[in-house]
Amino acid sequence: MGAERAAKIGIIGAGSVGATIAYAAMIRGVARQISLFDISRTKVNAEVLDLNHGMLFVPPGTVEGSDDIEVLHGADVVVMTAGAKQKPGQTRMDLATANAAICAKLLPDVVRVAPDALLLLVTNPVDVMTQVALKLTGLPWERVIGSGTVLDSSRFRYLLARHCGVAVQNVHAYIAGEHGDSEIPLWSSASIGSIPLSQWSVNEHGRLTAADKEQIVHNVKDAAYQVIQGKGATNYAIGLAVTNILEALLFDERRVLPLSGLLHGYRGLEDVCLSLPRIVGRKGIEPPLPIPMTVDEESGLRESAERIRQMVRGLGY
Ligand code: NAD
Known about the structure:
Strand order of the largest sheet: 3-2-1-4-5-6
Bound molecules: nicotinamide-adenine-dinucleotide
Number of helices: 8
């Protein structure tokens, strides 16, 4: 397991999400070099200046930025965060069209300047963008990765942990499918400290009623809307989630994460990108783990896959 402290991370987009990923990755010392690229020179220069002013307080490294994509040269991982956010009145499909056009403009150049990089997509709708990126770049499927439901699963675990009064690290539960409205909680495989969640009944730590479960799922799905309504963007949790993914990739950690990637016959699903728990390491993602599912969970996964497929088709990819 070779730790790659010498690695270079490239980040496309120095907006709320891109800059916060850089900040979190810098604090944790994930890479020796972090390079930001943004179409706005003023914005990227200001973010890089601010980050560099904190260099005294973090593990040694370099942060640089430019409006020239060459800044990503030789990166080990390139994180794509550039793109429009959903505005009032805009449909997810409008967003997909605008962001697919940005991917089409940038990603061929990314492959040119960083041919060996793993590509990590964060731009929404992330599953659709992951599939579009696969087509645009022709890279092997294991190197084209969507941040998927890592953030949603972290929200899910946090809410379960709070409800039951246990540490979030001892809750094991995943959200699968689309990073979006059709995502599905995998209740049947969820556990706390090795106790299946369905059997959880511990003095002073409560139990989960059907209404509790419904409320928790509602809160997971509504989370981004709540944060965006209050502050215009989500950035801290996604910044930490992506940093966690970057560590798993660059340090070859073999962590199990619900990342988006191409399916090849998983439960009969082909040719669609969505999230399922997978082992992650320096070469990228592995095929999803054979996680047990109820009939309802599996049919939810199929519906989610169909939604993503329709969006990808609507874009002409
Ligand atoms: P933002 O508007 O703050 O930043 C976007 C940045 O992209 C801007 O700085 C802009 O200048 C840059 N940009 C736009 N077009 C570009 C181009 N052609 N080349 C280079 N740079 C370009 O937005 P944000 O809040 O940082 O969100 C970015 C994306 O991340 C959105 O699509 C959002 O929906 C998504 N997001 C995903 C998740 C997730 O879990 N997958 C979570 C949060 C946000």
